[in-house]
Amino acid sequence: MKENTTPLLKINHPLFLKHKLEVWVKLDYLRHSEVQGNKWHKLKLNMQRAIQLNKTNLLTFGGAYSNHIAATAAMAKAYGLQSTGIIRGDELAKNRSKWSPTLIRAEQNGMTLRFVSRQDYRMKSTPQFTSQLSQDFPEAYILPEGGSNTLAVEGFRDFMQEINQQLPDWDYLFTAVGTGASLAGMSKFANSQTSHKNRKLIGVAALKNADYLKPQIKAWLESDSTHPQQTQWELKTQYHHGGYAKSSPELDKFMRWFEHQFQIPIDPIYTGKMLYAFFQEIQQKRIPNNSKILLIHTGGLQGKTNNKVKVK
Ligand SMILES: *Cc1c(COP(=O)(O)O)cnc(C)c1O
Description:
The longest helix has 15 residues, at 38-52. The protein is an alpha/beta fold. The strands form 2 sheets. A 6-stranded mixed β-sheet has the order 1-2-10-7-8-9. A 4-stranded parallel β-sheet has the order 5-4-3-6. It has helices spanning 14-18, 38-52, 67-78, 101-108, 118-122, 127-136, 150-154, 156-166, 181-189, 213-222, 249-262, 271-283, and strands at 8-11, 22-26, 57-62, 82-88, 111-116, 140-142, 172-177, 200-205, 233-236, 292-296. Strand 8, helix 10 (213-222) and strand 9 (233-236) form a beta-alpha-beta unit. The protein is globular. 38% of the residues lie in helices and 17% in strands. Pyridoxal-5'-phosphate binds at residues 37-39, 67-68, 146, 148, 176-183, 267, 270-271, 298-300.
């Protein structure tokens, strides 16, 4: 699979000057018009595996606003596979007017949507549910919620290599966290031969009480003994603004300011919170002077307000 390199944009602000910081944004939302940023990296090796196994359908799970659902539908379409989305909330089955732009777009891309009650959705990883699914969909390659599995983590190898070529001497990396698979992948492949060892990755959790993600992130990092060289990471759990897909007046205000100031579109669920956290961390002097910082724009713009994807 041939990939384009996405741009790295240096941004300037008096606050950065004051703290002697150099700051770049990795515009990875430009990776693909519909499979933005980290969803591309998480899907690509899974996609290859599905094709190797002669599967003809990608089946996965998500809520009505899941970027992973949108990305899976678009990716399947691009490779001529079918896709099936098991969606949380059976009230949506009969009420199309309540569908999110994400669901509308996923269906337009050929995804078959199956709505299940919240109760059934919670059972989705139980052995009974999965074996029933494999029976109902023998032709399907089943991806977990958020697409997060070991192949998803491995998908960040090329991405980190690309980053290390663009900016070999970065010190800090900020990225938004949902399941933590992307953070794990970035940590796993952050150090190249030439890079220094004091690098640090900061994950900003988009959901409330996110400490429970840490054991899973550690497990992903430790699953592969051939690559023990993970880079230091930290999960910031205080920037959720009320929880997943919730916002606050401060976040709304910050996002308007950021988009206007830097002319970079951002999403309220993930990248808005990550960038908010970054500015807070500077103001609280938690980032040492003279650091070179990378902010990863992981995408998420498809779900923003309408179903028109903004492509530069
Ligand atoms: C899904 C998503 C994330 C979170 O990725 P995880 O690997 O689940 O932590 C971050 N940013 C955007 C824009 C996303 O769509």
